[in-house]
Amino acid sequence: MLRANLIAPTRVVLEEAPEPTPGPGEVRLRIETCGVCGSDIHAYYGEHPFIDLPVQPGHEFVGEIDALGPGVAGWSVGQRVTAEPSLVCGECAQCRAGRYNICERLRVIGCQSDGALAEYLVVPAAKLVEIPDGMTNEQGAMIEPLAVGVHAMRLAALTPATRLLILGAGTIGLTALLAARAQGVTDITITDTVPAKLDLARELGAKHAVNVGATDLADFCRATFGAERAFDVAAECVGVEATVRDAINTLKKGGALVIVGVFGHEVKVNLGLVQDRELRLIGSLMYTMDDFLTARNLIASGRAPVTKLITGRYPLGQIGAAMQFIDQQRAHNIKTMIHIRPQ
Question: With a threshold of 0.85, does the pTM exceed it?
Answer without folding.
Answer: yes
